[in-house]
Design a protein that fits this description.
The structure holds two protein chains of two kinds. In chain A, helix 4 packs antiparallel against helix 10, helix 8 packs antiparallel against helix 9 and helix 12 crosses helix 13. Chain A has a two-stranded antiparallel sheet with strand order 1-2. Chain A starts with 11 loop residues before the first helix and ends with a helix. Chain A contains 13 helices and two strands, in the order αααββαααααααααα. Chain A is an all-alpha fold. The N terminus of chain A is likely disordered. Chain B starts with a helix and ends with a helix. In chain B, helix 4 crosses helix 11. Chain B has one domain: MetI-like fold (Orthogonal Bundle). The N terminus of chain B is likely disordered. The chains are: A mainly alpha, B mainly alpha. At the A-B interface, helix 2, helix 4, helix 5, helix 6 and helix 7 of A face helix 1, helix 2, helix 4, helix 5 and helix 6 of B.
Amino acid sequence: MATEVVTNGSGGPDARSVFGPPRRRLGEKAIAVVLFCAAVTSVVITVGIVASLAGETITFFADKAVTVGGFFTSSEWSPLFSDPQFGIRPLVQATLIISAIALLVAIPLGIGTAAFLSEYASPRVRAAIKPTLELLAGVPTVVFGYFALTYFTPTVLNGLLGLDVAVFNGLAGGLIVGILIVPTIASVAQDAMTAVPQSLREGAYGLGASRRQVTVRVVIPAALSGVTAGIVLGASRAVGETMVVLIAAGQLPTTSLDPRSPMETMTAFIGATGKGDVPTGSTGYKAIFAVGFALFVMTLILNTISIRFVRRYRQVYE
Amino acid sequence: MTTASARPARDVLGKPSSSHRLRDRLFVIMLALLTSVALIVLAVLLINTASDGVPEISWSFLTSFPSAFPAKAGIESAITGTLWLMGVVTFVIVPLGVASALYLEEYADSSRWWNRVIEVNIQNLAAVPSIVYGILGLAYIVRGPLSLGRTVLAGGLTLSLVVLPVVIITAREALRAVPPSIKEGALALGATRWQAIWRQILPASIPGIATGVILSIARAIGETAPLILVGAATFVAFNPTGLNSAFTALPLQIFSWVSQPSDQFRLLAAAAIIVLLVILVALNAVAIWLRNRYQQRW
């Protein structure tokens, strides 16, 4: 170690003058370059995603069966028929309906869970609930799909609630996706609520506010940007969720707005078409990429918004 | 604002009104109920799956290959496929994830635009839907530039891409948890930057990094959507023989059985789910044990 004192990069000019000129260490430089290359891989992955999606999407639109106008305006999606139609609206609509149902469930549950854990739960209760939520977040989504199809639809929706839904239906998909994203929303929102300075709470208590008033009128408003970030991130997960909707919501592209009937989301189309043997180069194969590109853009916008909001609350309180 | 501050002021002077206290109590109950909904669904899911699947689990179920006859079908090839995938994922994400995290924590000057791009990029990648990685895998790994075909290696690489951002993020947190004084002490004694990292920072952060890696592997082997696109074959009646072998995996097998209209196959799906969940719980238990056993408080 003693000889290496000389080579200490951060020793500064003084150290150098004491010990003589530093040896150049090529190894140190090489390591930095290797680590940099590893970090750049993630950028390469992004470039790969965009390039692979965009490349086939361009050839998709170059196909004579496809028109750009029809893609965005036509209300029929039947890429594997002999007379294929490529209007993405039924897929986008199903994605939005199911995500809306999911958020309707997950926003109150997520914020309620976050407020309970951050403001009310004793450390022991918190220590019991948080790992359970992590367990929920760790259950593979194919398991939730199985649950939605074999239990939730027949036993809860049809049996308990008597809703008369189809075997495959958007409602079960949406509700279960909602449960799935509760841990996402709760975790981000709870971080934001915990980050609210204690002095704000104490100020409100000093004015005579009750715990409920502190929670509702001080903590949640003060943590609003973090709570929003969690909701937007949850929305992004709901839009991108595949297995639950593929298994439980069906594979029927439709413009029907009735969530009790089967519907096909963008992700379900990609999964259903990708598992079959669609020949490379066929228009159906390229359609996977076009829909994937639309999906990627939607989630990218949501993720960017979410990251913005997180940064905002970090700047305010940390 | 005036009403908000006027009402509590009354409370300070007198006893809080009973309607006020009632509302406070109702509010707590409401929050507790909201919190419990997701947990109850999880409990129902686990109980329901267990009651369907446990009777189906037998030694022959674990050691048979998929079959068109439910009574003969098993998950041996799915289990071995999943183990192979775990191996590939571990092999890829540990060096790549740790190296990226080291660069971002120890080397990157965040005032440079390219370092900020890398950082924002990783945050974004972490939230890209996994099926999009499946499309990438299909186009560039199975076909296209790498052309690996529908093999163990292609599946493992695709799953590695899915979880890499999470590995990097957790490894960075583990590195950040090592107090700067450790590194400064090493540097003051004459260590080079890499010596300080290799002999001080990395050893101190290994429990945190290992926890993140194990949890990422757990996530990877539960992923189904990307494998649907790159794996495709669900009827694989042999164990993978190497990286270039065709394969199936537990989540794929579950999906394939769930998609069958026959109830008998759905019971098999439940049994396979239980096996998958047992593997996941075991991985999580190891992660928690590591965290509790080795994590230092500075």
